[in-house]
Amino acid sequence: MTDKDNSIINIALVGGGPFCKKVIEKIALGYPKKAVNASIVAVADPDFKSPGVIFAKEKGLQTVRDYHELYQPEYDIHLIIILTPDKTIFEDILKTKPHNIRILAYHVFELFWKAIGLERERAEEIETILNGIQDFILVITPEREIIDVNQPFLDQMGYSREEVIGSKCHEIYHKEDHPCNGSDLFCPLNRVIRDKRPSQQVRTRVDHNGERRYIEVTIYPIWEKDGKISKFIEISRDITERKKEESEITQRLEQMVEERTRQLKETHGKLLHQDKMASLGKLSASVVHEINNPIAGILNLIILIKRIIEEGPMSQKELDLFSRYLNLMETETRRTSRIVSNLLAFSRQSKVDLKSLNVNRLLEKILFLNSNLLKMSGVEVEKKLDANLPDIVGSEDQLQQVFMNLVSNAGEAIEVDGGGILSIESECFSEGDKITVSFRDTGAGIREENLSRLFEPFFTTKKKGKGVGLGLSVAYGIIEEHGGSINVESEEGKGTTFKVELPLRHISERLDPDGGPYVEH
Question: Does residue 54 carry a pLDDT above 50?
Fold first, then answer.
């Protein structure tokens, strides 16, 4: 029954009272032999009914009534600890023991025992605190070996203590048999060594079942006096659920943004159409006269032709007159058709159709469409269009709506003053990267306090029933979407100038559907 391993100190206890039982419980059973480098092998007490002797027998230890028997070589005792305060026993053992057996007096061992008890209680308290912390806490050596771990790590990652203690960290974290030295898997311990300070990062690791987890890791180095790292303290937490929630929130926000963008596009489209219909109403009122004149002329010519036919056979002179009437009817009919076609084209629902277009031709078309309206308002048009103006890429329908609005506003401003001049000028910048179109009128001008609000939706300086304040705000949005700008200069009583700048784009470029230019690669 004796332990023949000379590296282990064999201990015999003299005194089998309650103190003896407590010592056996705490030392002999609480620690492995290799951990304390000692083993209790025997207990001596004349009373075999004492608690210590009974417990020793239950645990398979040697028990004797006479402590002198412990001197025998077969017990191989190295140390006798006296657990009774009886001084005569201590003095007798001191006189009779062999020289190779050492002795530890009762009062000395009691002092050590109390100190050990306090230390153990403190260690248990610390262990309880660490296990109560839900963050993962691990102690790792510079050789990447895990030497301690708290219970939350074991519980949440699905490991037992035996699986973790003594294993390499990369074996537990990544199921790899080699350290994490790859650039895509940079070891946080190496970062601490490199930076010589604590490191924090979010890493992906796998649990016992191989499921990927997101872990927020903080590594603290423990330095020795010689400047070397003795161990690493890792404090980490599982943020997988937080990552999932963040991902779900991000998806919900993206869906909300998409829905809001769709609603804004619908609203913007309605505003465009509403503004167009307002402009169409103005045009319709003006072109009634423009259409009525040729129709009246055609009607008169038809009456003349019918009269000539009724008078009988026609002379050559009458045939020539007849032919002239028909030519006039054709001209007036074509002019009426052109006016109506332009109105129909303008009234159609807006659709962004980006193509190469010439701004000068667009301006001429708008002036033709508004010719009668401008004439009725007493507007004299002066044009200074750059003959070498390069084409731009944009939506002809939308830009027509912008220019139509500016021409219409200028006509109304001039009409208030009883007539005036509208100057329209186009030119290309010397840098060759954009063009500008200016609309300058000699109307009443705009008050200074209204200039800053001019492009606000539903802001208008017109009389009730003359406008709802959408035209300029819609125009501003269209020009912005084309990557350009629209500015206004005005002085009350001296007229107003609107200047539109539009960037030149190659045909390979187009507008982003959500607004703004981008280039195809």
Answer: yes
